[in-house]
Design brief:
about 35% helix; FAD/NAD(P)-binding domain
Length: about 525
């Protein structure tokens, strides 16, 4: 079965939904493909908010400076300036869609402060900002008749023009470009073809490559893996941001305790209840995330503790319930009243600063393929993302990318292309699914043990060897059995893990989120790491 749309969006977070809305308003047909339900995305779990200059006490230059400082010498300054300057207009669009950002009693926006920010500039909806934005965008999408949202469709691989060689299409190939993708209809158990002139990948990050992560189950790096497999340029995959403060439990579950809690005065304490961040950075508990995560990791290793503490007990219960209702209730569910008790915290994998290389208009190195959101690497974040800049980047790139796509659609008219058939061959349904769970566990442990907050060349090489073995096993499994979500996700996670390790081995210095004991100093002329699969 072949579906036909002008534009396909893979992913239903803030980036994909914003982009789809803008394109659909020009009467193009858009399909949003999401592997679970439309509301399941990294956006939906974003607590802190969206960073933007909206106060008279703030200034674009302050925001630019804070972003560059957090990025540790690898941000593209022109990109930073463009995204920061475009922020207020995109915020107003969200407000017009119905996002009710929290306000003070006098009607002014309630602005939070997070690590690395010199001013209060974080717009938020209590501590459920991502969910509020997601809900407003989904309601707007539902009103658009030319947007089709396909839930439980798992994008498998992109199709580009060169795949048509020797097929039934007589038109010779001039310039390679995207012409569609294959997706598994999960409920029907069949692979379907999607023909399109434009594909936007907005699939989020890859936190599930690690044993401990704040990301939902869907964060398996699908877009990055698909893009790499068709030869698209990938950058800076070594920069994995570990959120310093996630709720420690006796299981693998890690619940995000927003940086906004420290922005409101919470203090990190060791097991002796002593504050320690002043020993690591002049901004103490509000230092950039890479520094805070390494400090916590160091303190835990020195003491052998399984967790440290976050103290917000100088705030009243009423204030905490109003400002952080989700965090308050989650901790209470685990028997912790944060108004009276310290919160046990540990770092966990949170955000991928690298990804598919794009410019500020979501353009990739392959015609017709665009990328937006966490899946993309624009140069905004550099070696370490400034807190709450991610949602800002997503809405700015979605807007800019849609403008370019509309021009692209005008120039590239529809062609009657016949897509290559998906071939299952003689493969059977697997009766050996235990290999998927076993290999998934091994991958996550390998990444956590060898490619986490502090690295060495030897650890990275060990990880590379193990991941290469996993890759061989899963590729063999992939070609011998029918595809299913658990197989597709693991295939993509292994691919992304390989890219992370390869980039990490390229960087012979410690910078931002990449701290390697063999090379503790910074290079005087830092460069981006780069990968591309050549055919």
């Amino acid at each position: 079965m072949t579906h036909d749309y002008d534009v396909i969006v893979v992913g239903s977070g803030i980036a994909g939904l914003s982009f789809a809305l803008r394109v659909a308003r020009k009467n193009y047909t858009v399909a949003i493909i999401t592997k679970k339900t439309r509301a399941e995305s990294n956006t939906n779990y974003a607590q802190g908010g969206i960073a933007c200059v909206t106060s008279e006490r703030d200034d674009f230059e302050f925001h630019v400076h804070d972003t560059l400082s957090a990025g540790d010498g690898l941000c593209n300054e022109s990109v930073v300036r463009e995204i920061v300057n475009d922020g207020p207009a995109r915020i107003q669009e969200l407000i017009d869609l119905g996002v009710n950002f929290s306000q003070l009693n006098d009607g002014r926006l309630s602005l939070g402060k997070e690590g690395g920010h010199s001013k209060r500039r974080i717009l938020h909806v209590q501590d459920i900002t991502g969910k509020a934005i997601e809900s407003a965008l989904l309601e707007a999408v539902a009103r658009m008749k030319n947007i089709t949202t396909l839930e439980h469709f798992f994008a498998i691989d992109l199709i580009k023009c060169s795949a048509l060689t020797g097929s039934a299409n007589p038109t010779p190939i001039k310039d390679d470009k995207i012409i569609g993708l294959y997706a598994l209809n999960v409920r029907a158990g069949v692979v379907e073809s999607f023909r399109s002139r434009v594909v936007l990948i907005a699939t989020g990050g890859a936190g599930q490559a690690y044993q401990y992560t704040t990301n939902p189950d869907i964060a398996t790096g699908d877009g990055i893996a698909m893009a790499y497999r068709v030869g698209v340029e990938i950058e800076n995959m070594e920069f994995i941001q570990f959120h310093p403060t996630t709720l420690y439990t006796n299981t693998d579950e890690r619940f995000l305790v927003s940086e906004a809690v420290r922005g409101e005065g919470a203090i990190l304490r060791d097991m002796d209840e002593s504050a320690f961040m002043t020993h690591y950075h002049s901004q103490a508990d509000l230092a950039p995330r890479d520094i805070v995560a390494r400090a916590i990791d160091s303190e835990m290793k020195k003491s052998g503790a399984q967790h440290l503490w976050l103290d917000i007990t100088d705030h009243s219960e009423a204030v905490l319930k109003e400002r952080f209702p989700t965090i308050y209730n989650k901790c209470l569910h685990h028997g912790i009243n944060i108004a009276q008790e310290f919160i046990p915290i540990v770092p966990a994998a949170h955000y991928l600063c690298g990804g598919v290389k794009t410019n500020t208009h979501a353009v990739t190195s392959l015609n017709g393929l665009f990328a937006c959101g966490e899946v993309a690497c624009t140069g905004l974040h550099g070696a370490n993302r400034l807190a709450s800049n991610s949602l800002l980047e997503a809405v700015v790139l979605a807007h800019n990318g849609a403008e370019i796509v509309l021009n692209y659609l005008e120039r590239n008219k529809k062609e009657a292309l016949i897509l290559p058939d998906w071939v299952d061959g003689d493969v059977q349904n697997s009766d050996e699914r235990v290999i998927l769970s076993h290999n998934s566990d091994e991958l996550k442990r390998t990444m956590w043990d060898y490619v986490a907050i502090v690295r060495t060349t030897k650890r990275l090489e060990r990880a590379q060897t193990r991941i290469q073995n996993l890759s061989k096993e899963i590729e063999e499994y992939y070609w011998n059995f029918k595809v299913e979500p658990s197989l597709l996700q693991l295939r993509n996670l292994i691919q992304v893990a390989e890219l992370i390790v390869k980039c990490a081995l390229q960087r012979k210095e410690s910078r931002g989120l990449h701290y390697i004991l063999d090379h503790p100093e910074k290079n005087t002329n830092p460069k981006n790491t780069y990968l591309q699969k050549l055919e």
